[in-house]
TrEMBL record:
Name recorded for this polypeptide: Sporulation stage II protein D amidase enhancer LytB N-terminal domain-containing protein
GO biological process: sporulation resulting in formation of a cellular spore
NCBIfam families tied to this protein: SpoIID_LytB
Signal peptide: 1-22
All copies of domain Sporulation stage II protein D amidase enhancer LytB N-terminal, residue ranges: 125-220
Nucleotide-binding as UniProt keyword: no
């Protein structure tokens, strides 16, 4: 990976059953040069302080360029600016761009490579900060956040390919802008909603190497089409398809890969409880959202009986009074959140002594795509990143985008 000069430089049956990807073939669909990615790294900030050496600042409203020799600290009072110009800026507007001859710009104590953009937030009372940088530099900084930079190289390489594929799909489809219904000044954001990216000091020799050795590699469908490539922390023994979690089918995800390689890593199990009142509120919400098929309106107090359940099932079967209901497990996580339901891999039963519904589960995350702790385990056992990706993405192939 090109860098500016001063930057520091499992069991036998399972093994035999998994096919590895063939040699990387040219990415025929696009064949473009390495792109630059725009990542929202700060959101709804009242004030933004940018510093650096030999800063170059461009004010886009008047197309004014100014260079500041030496060390410079620039403050943007976004709240007061937004208050004065609320009527003028009815949608997010690019205010300023800053970069440095050194290649590094500091925002709120974090050093970022590339260019930093200051954009008005949707309500114009604050600012968003967007980093524009080379996609490969973005991937190197991300690896220490989405995984651990001390993990085996092959696990990091698998993560690099998955994250690059996810990011490139967002970029090529302009998905954020389509979702918002307006022009977005970024391709994706640094959060669990998309991917958690890192700053310059999150980049290490290992993350650089994992990025360099997979440069430009992405996962595509057999016809060479980019699709979202998902990953999560720990499957807990079961990997799901997108349609089982979000209700929409994604090309390439036609199988449920074998999970469970993560069992010896991380927290083994988690337990939670839900009161009758909260459970009833959940059922009413699910009915209102038409997530359960029940014509009779849920109201009043009736006995709720949970039928025998296990983590292997993808739905909860229950009786509300005399009415039989089937509720997909991911709906619980959507309503109650990630704290109460860390994963979609759980069983639910009534605890008579505590007068509450007992939830027992394992895993962390939505459970779709690559299990990161599973990738760690497989890499520790000597699996290559190609073999790891082939296991978790059997409906995709590895190709080189640039």
């Amino acid at each position: 990976m090109h860098r500016i000069c001063f930057l520091f430089s499992i069991y036998l049956s399972t093994v035999l059953s998994v096919q590895t990807f063939a040699e990387i073939t040219p990415y025929l669909v696009t064949g473009f040069a390495e792109p630059k990615i725009r990542v929202r790294v700060g959101q709804s900030l009242k004030k933004v302080i940018v510093s650096g050496t030999d800063l170059k600042r461009t004010f886009h409203l008047g197309n004014k360029l100014k260079v500041f020799p030496g060390r410079k600290r620039i403050k943007f009072n976004c709240d007061s600016f937004g208050h004065k110009n609320r009527k003028k800026f009815k949608k997010p507007t690019l205010l300023a761009s800053l970069n440095s001859m050194t290649g590094l710009v500091t925002v709120s104590g974090k050093k970022y490579m590339g260019t930093v953009d200051i954009v008005t937030s949707p309500k114009s009372d604050s600012c968003d900060v967007v980093q524009e940088t080379r996609l490969e530099d973005y991937i190197s900084g991300l690896l220490a956040k989405e995984m651990n930079s001390s993990w085996p190289l092959e696990a990091l390489k698998a993560q690099a390919v998955a994250a690059r594929s996810y990011a490139l799909h967002k970029m090529k489809t302009n998905q954020v802008s389509k979702t918002l219904g307006r022009k977005a000044h970024y391709h994706l954001e640094s959060s669990e909603k998309h991917q958690v990216s890192g700053s310059f000091f999150d980049m290490t020799r290992s993350t650089d190497l994992a990025t360099t050795e997979t440069q430009g590699e992405v996962l595509v469908t057999p016809k060479g089409k980019l699709t979202p490539i998902f990953f999560h922390a720990k499957c807990g023994g079961k990997i799901l398809r997108p349609d089982q979690v979000w209700g929409n089918t994604v090309i390439g995800y036609h199988k449920n890969p074998k999970g469970g390689h993560c069992i010896g890593h991380g927290k083994k199990k988690w337990r939670k409880k839900i009161s009758y009142k909260r459970f009833l509120s959940f059922l009413k919400w699910a009915q209102k959202k038409k997530l359960i098929n029940l014509k009779t309106k849920i109201s009043g107090k009736k006995k709720i009986k949970i039928l025998a359940d296990s983590k292997k099932r993808n739905s909860i079967r229950l009786y509300w009074g005399d009415l039989h209901l089937v509720v997909a497990k991911p709906i619980f996580r959507r309503y109650f959140g990630r704290v109460l339901f860390p994963s979609n891999n759980f069983s639910l039963n009534w605890n008579d002594s505590k007068r509450a519904f007992a939830v027992s589960g394992s895993g962390l995350g939505h459970g779709v795509g690559m299990c990161q702790l599973g990738a760690l385990d497989l890499a520790q056992k000597g699996w290559s990143y190609k073999k790891i990706l082939a296991l978790y993405f059997p409906g995709h192939k590895l190709e080189k985008a640039y």
